[in-house]
Amino acid sequence: MFRPLALSIGLRYTRAKRRNHFISFISSISIAGIALGVAALITVLSVMNGFEQELRSRILGMTAHATISGYREPLADWEQAAHLAGKHPEVIGVAPYVQNEVMLTKGSKVSGAVVKGIRPDLEPAVSTVGEHMNTGSLDELEPGTYNIVLGSELAANLGAHVGDQITMVTPQANFSPAGVLPRLRRFRVTGIFEIGMYEYDRGVALVNLQDAAKLFKMGEGVTGVRLKLADMFQAPRISRELAQQLGGNLRVEDWTRQHANFFRAVQTEKRVMFIILTLIVAVAAFNIVSTLVMVVTDKRADIAILRTLGATPGTILRIFMIQGALIGLFGTVLGIVSGVALALNVETIVPAIEKTFGVQFMPADIYYISDLPSKLNWPDVWHIGGVAFLLSFVATLYPAWRASRTQPAEALRYE
Fold this sequence. Notes:
Elements: H1 5-15, H2 21-62, E1 66-70, H3 78-86, E2 91-106, E3 109-118, E4 133-135, E5 147-151, H4 152-158, E6 165-176, E7 179-193, H5 198-203, E8 204-208, H6 209-215, E9 224-229, H7 235-246, E10 250-254, H8 255-258, H9 260-285, H10 287-298, H11 300-308, H12 313-344, H13 346-357, H14 378-404, H15 408-412
Parallel strand pairs: 3-8, 5-7
Antiparallel strand pairs: 1-9, 1-10, 2-3, 2-6, 2-9, 4-7, 5-8, 6-7
Helix pairs in contact: 1-12, 2-9, 2-10, 2-12, 2-14, 9-14, 10-12, 10-14, 12-14
């Protein structure tokens, strides 16, 4: 089969056994370094993608994809707003809520909290809190019973268990001849949930919607309506469409605005980590420079003979560029295969390492996510592979250029 001269010689130089075994050693180190850097980059980004997905699912397990609320006042006609929102083809769940900040007390223990009034029959349509109940059930939040469900950390802070009575102190006050008195109400703990996010487990309590509306003097109004969407990543667009449909007297917000700083910080961390690990790949890739410089020195006589036989400087340039590019290609492919295999098996490999050496990388009493989640994103893999190969190719330019500048007479003088 016909092959161009530069490609044929470049492939032969890559396969040939070298008189100088140190050159082969440096080539192997270059391939291993690129492979290790690529594998590390794929694995780390996959783990960070897994963390982001896990945190997003936990956050959105408690909050909504989008909310409809009034401007600085309760949403009086929430049924109409919920009905209109539910007609949107991409809205798959609707539920009203009442929310306010209160103080909870039990004996001498006091803690601030955010109380959410919910409809137990509608809540599963917009959140997964019912699936994370340690004890009890949301169905016990019946109107008029003044039952309450606490987050696990909040319950532990108050020393409250199922069946205990706690007192809720609201921001509103009662005016009487004796003066201004705080509004108090006794609630019975009927359940404890654990989402796995400290913010919610430590600071959120759930009560029935009617009980909350009565307690906060909201009448028939609610704080807003929570929505669940078929595709949460389309939340900004759907929110704009709903805002136009509902009119200007209602506010529609989506989760990307409510948690914008958090997810922006996660994206920034991913970019910084990509840059740092890419520098590791770059260091490994530029080992190719030393490899090719030594190869060019070793092959000076061959280069001179090729030049005397009619090979142009461009042909010599391409020969060594092909050789360096093949080293980078081997390292990149090996790194992609290793990285993908590692990323797909992180959740199995890490527990095995922990069991073997008796260590725990993420203790459950410190981190809510005690396992390393991983989500392999194929566009990331191809992007990493492309960057690694490009760096390897760039590293070949200077040695290949120096080889093309070799003068035949000078190279053969001492041969």
